[in-house]
Design a protein that fits this description.
Layout: H1 10-23, H2 26-35, H3 38-58, H4 66-99, H5 119-127, H6 147-177, H7 212-223, E1 231-236, H8 243-251, H9 254-259, E2 262-269, H10 274-285, H11 298-309, E3 314-321, H12 327-338, E4 346-351, H13 354-360, E5 366-367, H14 373-384, H15 394-407, H16 411-422, H17 427-438, H18 448-456, H19 460-468, E6 478-479, H20 480-489, H21 502-515, E7 520-522, E8 525-527, H22 530-539, E9 544-548, E10 561-565, H23 579-587, E11 597-601, H24 609-618, E12 624-628, H25 634-640, E13 648-652, E14 684-686, E15 707-709, H26 712-716, E16 729-733, E17 753-757, H27 765-769, E18 781-785, H28 795-807, E19 816-820, E20 842-846, E21 853-855, E22 864-868, E23 875-877, E24 883-887, E25 894-896, H29 901-904, E26 909-913, E27 920-921, H30 927-937, E28 943-947, E29 957-959, E30 968-972, E31 979-981, E32 987-991, E33 998-999, H31 1011-1019, E34 1023-1027, E35 1046-1050, E36 1053-1058, E37 1061-1066, E38 1071-1072, E39 1087-1091, E40 1098-1099, H32 1101-1104, E41 1112-1116, H33 1126-1133, E42 1148-1152, H34 1158-1164, E43 1173-1177, E44 1184-1187, H35 1198-1202, H36 1205-1208, ...
Parallel strand pairs: 1-4, 1-5, 2-3, 3-4, 9-10, 10-11, 11-12, 12-13, 13-14, 14-15, 16-17, 17-18, 18-19, 19-20, 20-22, 21-23, 22-24, 23-25, 24-26, 25-27, 26-28, 28-30, 29-31, 30-32, 31-33, 32-34, 34-35, 37-39, 38-40, 39-41, 41-42, 42-43, 43-46, 44-45, 44-47, 46-48, 48-51, 51-53, 52-54, 53-55, ...
Antiparallel strand pairs: 6-8, 7-8, 35-36, 36-37, 49-50
Length: about 1700
């Protein structure tokens, strides 16, 4: 059995004790007596107690007798069977209890309908699939067990009793003869298959002991490599010796960071997959995952990798390598890395195996051995005594030194054994450990025996918990709560203290395992070292098994717990998972019937669901199930699970891709099986907080449910939740319905967290007291909230609210209290005069509108206080706190407390925002004392925020330099502060500080202080925001630190850094050099934008050249940059226009509205070896374009000799190296640009895929071939590259009348615009064309070869007045979208009867203008598949019949002034309807029959349109308005009537868009009242109203409103009252409104910051929030552009 030898351990005895304690109770005894099974159960209990005595007597005796060991294993199996049969009996007991209504708190409230099958019937029906006999009687009304079930259980118990009796006697006899003797432990070579390991480059050690010499040696080897060859340096050592720690130590060293341009860390482990490893390397070098994440071709991935590492010196760490045979794979993996040819590139690899080092190494390996004696002793003391300098306990130190000699300097062993010793620093304990250690000395070469010692000292319950963790993947990040829930579900957690919950005991178990060294805590999660995981696997060999990938070790038949791990296939998609191999493994599991655990890890496992379903059906004893299931399989999976034993059920991935906006009614999609309500033993149900599903009826049958993880709507939909008396957390919404009244909470006394909302539905103190919160002794977190809409000035209502809160008095043990929306004027007595919640540690009060004075000194344990929007609060007194947060209290004047250290010594966070009247604050009363005592007063303060509190500090100097712990500082609107001193910070924000002149760290320090100290002060800065601080002098170049992740400077100079993106704007900046920018701190930047710098004339080339990682450069609106004569002066001083920056990684270059001359670009382009995209827009200083040919010599002087120096400035010469790399070329608005010299055209660009030329009329003639006298000149295809996929041309010249794109076989997109002389386009050879756009080509008469475009999907033709027949259009079977403007010639063709041949039936989107009655009557019936139809600008159209368009989903009709009637017929799929500027429209037939209309856009000028007025009066049309989600109103707001808004009960999006010169000034009173009725509204938009003065005055009643957007409304100066969480966006409005927007946006961001701070959110989640915000702004801008 390897390391864990066979012993009569306490685990089996513990199992017996657990079964006896759990099932053989008085309650069970009484029930089995009634059921007629008392004798059988008594016999079972008797035999189990006999076994218990035998095991107790022999506990700990070593077994070297295989038959005896087998008998002990068999005994354990019988005990498991006994537990199963008793658990099944308990299930029937619970079932009968629920049937009879005894599961309820009040039996009188429970009733079981006789008209529906009982749960007994349903369960018996389920289990009959596996019973041999059928039922003989009907148990519908029986209080006893059905005969068949009773007989089966009786036989099972008797069989177990007989086997226990025989086996117990034989074991007893043999044990009496056995002599205990030690058994040799297994050697290290007995290897257990390892799972894929994950390591990180981020240091996790507080201190690294004794590795300085090895670190320096490795660093020297790495940085001294000068060869162009790629070198590999292996680090070799046994497991646990510290190889990864040493590699991390090297990786994070400053010398390494400075030497290498790129550092990469990849954990290899046993899964040596070249594809996976290449992808992980690409994740380091590619910021855009889209470049490679969908690519499955290994060769393409390597090409991408090669391009991204070109010209970069890199260090690549391969950690934990095991593969020693796949040399070919290793060579293949390194291929692109070897072709980099930059001197000094290195690979550092760690491995346990010398054979691996020999295969991969090009340098002698660094052998890592145990630590030297001195360093190891220090490390051991730190682990065993908690202090490396400990000198006490000489006897213990002597024992420790003896143990240390045996540990061979292995850090992992020291950590494990040290933790074991540390639990009891006494002679007796240490001596016991020492004696036990001696028994392992015979075989000490392996590490597992060392760890086994610690395992042996674990109590039996911790051993069980530890072994169970072997089921999880290696390096898994355990969520503590979920792990404890799984332990509880397996009955591993036994609570001896009746005042403690099982969860508390389980967390104590986990903490104990951390203390023993078996786990490490990382942030809020727990991790297990891979050797500990290996130990858990060996210890649990007979009980637990993991199928990791398709390769799994031999699984013992005694295994009861199984996990399936497919994470290795998650990245590569479902096609890579070998389903057949998994099927073979799963089908051959012979022990599945007795499985107690089935856990699945990896989303790719969803493709094994069919096999997992079979396994679930076979497994009759499952207690824990964790599985990935699509939402439509939730019900079927639930149906397959045996309900008898299940305690833990977790469905993962159910709603992973749900989009709330597009899937507005998720509840209808998810209908769990009714079988879920029969899992009477279920304790933990987890479907994820994002999961919304229809709560099945009788969900309250789950009376053992302790925890439910789901969307809060699921919590609030459980009818009769009061029956779930074991539940520990609930979000309860009070309703005036019996099963949702507040009295449901009466008996739920196990609650730990409780949120009660909609308390306005509780009317009296008696009703509130009925919840009996005062009885809930375990309750730690309580939230009480009233909806804002309930706030009013009615004194009676206020008094009722006060009575309700008084009746909600919680138990005195409460730790956290949150009250929101409370309208009473007085505090409850239990929080004021007669404080009962003195144990309170967290108090959060929000929108308690009427409270004026708050005294909290009587809460001695209060540590966190958060007050938000307490409008009438004027004074608060506070005790000593850790966190103080005061937000938006407009008349707060005083915040008082004990002066001095007593008040502040524990303070960690202080945040005060929006308290403009606060002028008396204890902490800032005396400048002298603050300056002198700040270090002692604020010894723990880490975060300080003061915003919009101008009177809180009346000092000109704010001295914070002594607050050494301070890491985050934000100051807004402190007008008096002139000078600020700060310590070393991580985040600094200074906003609206008009008097601020100096800030330490941003100003040059006195000469007496060293530059080194100054750099230390700034080195930790990650975020710097400075806005509207006009007097602040920043003497240091920005950014001040290479560690900066976000910087925003707004003023005369605007700088913004966000991650890897850098943007700079300034009206005054003239030179961009080292005085402005610290280029050396920008080496990691990938995107640089220099915009709107009209006075910028030069950029430091030397500094620019340091931006070696730059991928994209954009220069816009810099009209004087490098503009002559500045450039001429530079050229005269240094040839070739001075030092041109070298940007080896640059791929995208965008020059727009800039004075940059061609000469500067000519000298820069040869250095841009990676350039793929070049864009020139409005560059007046570039007048000639010279495209080099590969045969020309670079730097040829022929051009220079032909023109003067000033003329050469205007020539852009594209070098030959660009010809093969450039993929996209865009030239816009360069009206004077023309080709220079004999060579012209773009044919030399061999890789060009996109060519876009617009408004460059002088380039066009050079694309034509033929003689000048030839009026039919064509585009010379030799002047265009054959690689083109996208071609867009405009302003083709007069001498080019025919366009013939021959030879462009890859062309997918062709656009021809604004070419009035173009007469013919020949398309015969464009076989690959997918989209064709021809716009504003008035003389165009023919499109020849249209029938050959068999791949064409989109066709747009507009303002081509002479275009006649579109011959061949009917043959385009792939055409899906057509936009066409009907001209007289096309109309004549239609009227001539050719309309059927005109359009192919494949079209599903049609936009057409100038449509007439005759054309539409024959055209539309021929398009049965059309789903989107737009009819615009058709003044002659009078009627429109759409009865044949049955698939139509979107219909838009605009500017059809004569249209009088619209017949929708059978357009039953219509979801979006738009009708604009159709003044004559009086009737829409069939609209009331459309069931799915979601979006409606309508124009109105003076009152409701006639057709709409008629529609509102018709019967049956209200259903249309009830379902409507979006309404867009063009023109004035006359559509917004009370009669309409009363029916818009589901409306979520309302847009107002003004027409040109719209006269609307404000909404009328009726329109404002109508708007208040839209309580479901989420987004409200106003745009394009030049005369609109006022927005709706008050939007606070729109409680669902999340977004208000205002576009192009220049007369609006103020904002309405809005819900505090409403998102606001303002564009193209007045300066006053822009200022209001800035203030609101600042507050909104602060609220987001508060929300992030108020929850334990990860850094990754905070980053995701920032990305989401960025995308949101982009979407808004796109929306503006579209409108």
């Amino acid at each position: 059995m390897g390391v864990v030898e066979t012993v009569v351990d306490a685990a089996t005895g513990w199992l017996v004790e657990s079964i006896l304690g759990s099932f053989f109770t008085r309650q069970m005894e009484a029930w089995v007596q009634d059921a007629g099974l008392a004798e059988d159960v008594e016999n079972l209990e008797s035999e189990m107690r006999n076994v218990q005595m035998v095991l107790a007597a022999a506990e700990g005796r070593t077994i070297d007798n295989k038959p005896l060991a087998w008998s002990l294993d068999e005994l354990k199996e019988l005990l498991y069977d006994a537990e199963d049969v008793m658990d099944e009996l308990d299930y029937y007991r619970l079932q009968q209890q629920i049937e009879q209504g005894k599961g309820c708190t009040d039996p009188a409230e429970s009733s079981v309908s006789s008209s529906t099958p009982s749960s007994f019937q349903l369960v018996v029906s389920w289990c009959s699939r596996d019973r041999k006999r059928k039922r003989d009687d009907d148990p519908t009304h029986s209080t006893m067990l059905p005969h068949e079930i009773k007989l089966d259980i009786s036989e099972s118990i008797k069989g177990i009793v007989n086997h226990l009796h025989k086996l117990g006697n034989s074991v007893r006899k043999v044990l009496q003869l056995e002599i205990s003797r030690p058994v040799p432990v297994a050697k290290q070579g007995q290897y257990v298959a390892r799972n894929t390991r994950l390591t990180t480059s981020v240091p996790i050690e507080d201190k690294v002991y004794g590795r300085d010499v090895e670190r320096d040696k490795i660093i020297e080897l790495l940085i001294n490599g000068k060869s162009n060859d790629l070198h590999v340096l292996p680090i070799v050592g046994i497991g646990g010796v510290g190889k990864t720690t040493l590699a991390r130590f090297v990786y994070g060293d400053q010398r390494i960071k400075e030497h290498f341009d790129l550092r990469m860390w990849v954990c290899v482990s046993t899964n040596f997959d070249t594809m996976r490893l290449t992808r992980e390397i690409l994740e380091h070098v590619c910021t855009d995952r889209q470049q490679f994440e969908k690519i499955t071709n290994f060769n393409v991935l390597q090409d991408i990798l090669l391009k991204n590492i070109e010209n970069k010196r890199f260090l690549l760490v391969f950690d934990d390598m095991w593969e020693e045979n796949d040399r070919g794979g290793w060579i293949s993996l390194l291929a692109p890395l070897k072709h980099n040819h930059v001197p000094g590139c290195m690979i550092l690899a760690t491995t346990r195996r010398p054979s691996v080092a020999k295969m991969i190494g090009t340098m002698d390996p660094v052998q890592v051995n145990g630590l030297d004696e001195k360093e190891f002793w220090q490390f051991f003391k730190a682990c065993a005594f908690g202090n490396e300098s400990h000198e006490g306990h000489p006897t213990l130190q002597s024992i420790g030194q003896q143990i240390v000699k045996s540990l061979k300097g292995i850090p992992l062993a020291a950590r494990s054994v040290g933790a074991l010793l540390n639990i009891n620093v006494t002679y007796e304990h240490w001596r016991t450990v020492q004696n036990k250690w001696k028994s392992l000395q015979e075989d000490i070469d392996g590490i597992l025996p060392m760890l086994k010692l610690s395992y042996d000292f674990l109590p039996v319950h911790l051993q069980q918990c530890f072994k169970y963790c072997s089921l999880f993947p290696e390096d898994y990040r355990f969520n503590g709560e979920n792990l404890v829930h799984a332990w509880i579900s397996q009955n591993f957690v036994q609570c001896q203290d009746p005042t403690k919950r099982l969860e508390e005991t389980g967390m104590q178990y986990l903490d104990n395992l951390v203390d023993f060294g078996f786990f490490q805590k990382v942030d809020s999660d727990y991790v297990m070292h891979d050797l500990m995981h290996e130990l858990a696997q060996k210890a649990s060999l007979n009980e637990c098994a993991a199928i990791n990938g398709s390769n799994s070790r031999v699984i013992q038949p005694s295994v009861r717990h199984l996990s399936i791990i497919t994470t290795a296939y998650d990245k590569d998609g479902h096609c890579s998972i070998p389903c057949d191999k998994f099927q073979n493994i799963l089908e051959n599991i012979g022990f599945s019937k007795k499985l107690r655990t089935l856990m699945v890890f990896g989303r790719s496992s969803i493709h094994l669901l069919r096999f997992l379903h079979i396994l679930c059906m076979k497994s009759k004893s499952l207690r824990v199930v964790r599985i990935y299931v699509p939402h439509n399989d939730v019900s079927s999976t639930s149906d397959l699970l045996n309900p008898y034993h299940l305690r833990y059920l977790e469905f993962i991935g159910v709603f992973s891709n749900t989009n709330i906006r597009t899937n507005l009614d998720l509840k209808k999609n998810i209908v769990p099986s009714q079988a879920l309500t029969k899992f009477y033993h279920l304790q933990f149900f987890n479907v994820g907080v994002g999961c919304i599903f229809s709560v099945p009826t009788s969900m309250n049958n789950l009376i053992n449910l302790r925890n439910i993880v789901a969307h809060e709507k699921v919590h609030s939909e459980i009818a009769g939740v009061g029956k779930l008396t074991a539940l520990q957390g609930i979000k309860f919404k009070v309703r005036i319905v019996g099963e949702f009244e507040i009295k449901q909470l009466r008996s739920m006394n196990k609650l730990v967290t409780l949120e009660i909302s909609q308390l306005e539905n509780v009317k009296t103190k008696e009703q509130a007291s009925g919840a009996r919160l005062i009885d809930k002794e375990y309750l730690q977190e309580l939230s009480l909230s009233w909806n804002d809409i309930s706030v009013g000035l009615d004194p009676c209502s206020a008094r009722r609210t006060e009575d309700v809160l008084e009746g909600l008095q919680p138990h005195e043990n409460l730790k956290s209290l949150h009250i929101s929306g409370y309208s009473g004027a007085n505090l409850p007595t239990w929080l004021a005069s007669n404080v009962s919640v003195k144990m309170l540690r967290i108090l959060h009060l929000e929108k308690c509108w009427e409270w004026q004075i708050l005294r909290l000194e009587m809460l001695p344990f209060l540590r966190k206080l958060k007050l938000i929007r307490m409008w009438k609060l004027t004074e608060i007194s506070i005790p000593s706190l850790e966190e103080l947060i005061l937000i938006e209290m407009p008349i707060l004047e005083k915040c008082l407390g004990t002066y001095g250290k007593e008040l502040t010594s524990d303070l960690r966070v202080m945040m005060i925002k929006g308290c403009p009247q606060l002028n008396e604050f204890t902490l800032f009363q005396s400048y002298f004392l603050f300056q002198v005592e700040q270090q002692s007063w604020f010894s723990s303060l880490r975060k300080l925020t003061i915003c919009y509190c101008p009177h809180i500090i009346n000092w000109e100097i704010l001295p914070l330099g002594g607050v050494r712990a301070l890491k985050e500082l934000k100051l807004v609107d402190l007008h008096l502060v002139r000078e600020l001193s700060v310590p070393s910070l991580e985040k600094l924000e200074l906003i609206k500080m008009p008097s601020l002149e100096r800030c330490s760290g941003l100003m040059a320090l006195p000469s007496s202080l060293s530059q080194e100290k100054q750099e230390v002060c700034l080195s930790n800065l990650h975020k710097l925001i400075i806005h509207d601080c006009p007097s602040l002098m920043i003497s240091h170049p920005l950014p001040p630190s290479a560690n900066i992740r976000k910087i925003s400077i707004k003023g005369k100079l605007s700088i913004n850094i966000d991650g890897k993106s850098f943007n700079i704007k300034s009206n005054d900046l003239s030179v961009l050099d080292y005085q402005i920018l610290a280029f050396h701190n920008l080496r990691g930047m990938r995107w640089l934008d220099i915009w709107n710098c009209p006075n910028l004339i030069s950029i430091s080339s030397e500094g620019f050249s340091q931006l070696t990682g730059l991928v994209s450069l954009s220069i816009r609106n810099c009209s004087n940059l490098f503009k002559p004569p500045i450039l001429l002066e530079a050229a005269s001083e240094n040839s070739s226009f001075g030092n041109i920056p070298t940007l080896p990684s640059l791929k995208h270059l965008d020059i727009s509205s800039s004075g940059i001359p061609g000469g500067w670009l000519t000298n820069m382009l040869p250095h841009l070896r990676s350039l793929e995209k070049l864009s020139l827009r409005d560059c007046p200083q570039i007048k000639w374009l010279w495209i080099s040919q590969p045969t020309e010599m670079e730097g040829s002087n022929s051009l220079a000799s032909a023109v003067t120096l000033s003329a050469e400035d205007q020539i852009l010469k594209v070098p030959s190296n660009i010809l093969c790399s450039l993929k996209q070329l865009t030239i816009y608005g360069c009206v004077d640009l023309e080709f220079y010299g004999g060579k012209r055209g773009f044919g030399g660009f061999t890789s060009l895929e996109v060519l876009d030329i617009y408004d460059c009329p002088k380039l066009g003639p050079f694309l034509a071939s033929g003689t000048k006298d030839d009026d039919t000149r064509n585009v010379d295809v030799g002047l265009l590259p054959s690689s083109l996929e996208v071609l867009s041309l405009s302003h083709l010249p007069e001498n080019l009348q025919s366009h013939f794109p021959k030879g462009l076989t890859y062309l997918r997109y062709l656009s021809l615009m604004d070419s009035p002389y173009l007469k013919c386009v020949q398309l015969h050879s464009c076989m690959a064309l997918e989209e064709l756009r021809i716009l504003r080509c008035e003389q165009l008469g023919a499109l020849e070869g249209l029938q050959f475009l068999t791949s064409l999907q989109r066709l747009t033709i507009s303002r081509c007045q002479h275009l006649g027949a579109l011959e061949g259009l009917q043959f385009l079977s792939c055409l899906r979208s057509l936009e066409i403007e009907m001209n007289p010639k096309l109309q004549d063709q239609e009227q001539g009867g050719n309309q059927i041949e005109l359009l192919p039936p494949s079209i599903d989107r049609l936009e057409i203008s100038n449509l007439t009655n005759n054309v539409q009557s024959g055209l539309l019936p021929c398009l049965p598949a059309i789903t989107k139809l737009g009819i615009w600008g058709s003044p002659e159209l009078t009627s429109l019949q759409l009865g044949y368009c049955k698939a139509l989903t979107e219909l838009s009709i605009r500017h059809c002034e004569s249209l009088a009637s619209l017949q929708l017929g059978y357009c039953m799929e219509l979801t979006e309807l738009e009708i604009i500027d159709c003044e004559s429209l009086a009737l829409i037939e069939g609209l009331q029959s459309i069931p799915n209309l979601m979006s409606f856009i309508v124009a109105a000028s003076s009152g409701l349109p006639p057709w709409m007025e008629l529609l509102l009066q018709q019967k049956g049309t209200c259903e249309i308005w009830f379902r409507l989600k979006r309404l867009e109103i063009i023109g004035d707001a006359s559509v917004l009537t009370m009669s309409l808004c009363k029916q818009l009960t589901s409306l979520q999006y309302l847009d107002f868009w003004g027409k040109r010169m719209s006269p609307m000034v404000t909404l009328t009173e009726e329109q404002e009242r109508a708007l208040q009725l839209l309580t479901s509204l989420r987004e409200l938009h106003f745009g394009g109203y030049p005369n609109l003065l006022l927005l709706p005055a008050d939007l606070r009643s729109l409680v669902s409103l999340k977004s208000l957007r205002i576009y192009s409304c220049p007369s609006i100066s103020g904002l309405p009252e809005m819900p505090a969480s409403c998102d606001l966006y303002v564009h193209d409005c007045s300066e006053e409104l822009a200022q209001r927007f800035k203030e609101w946006e600042l507050r909104r961001r602060e609220m987001i910051d508060d929300e992030i701070y108020g929850h334990v959110w990860s850094k990754e989640l905070a980053q995701q929030l920032e990305v989401w915000e960025l995308r949101r702004m982009e979407m808004i801008v796109d929306e503006i552009v579209n409108h």
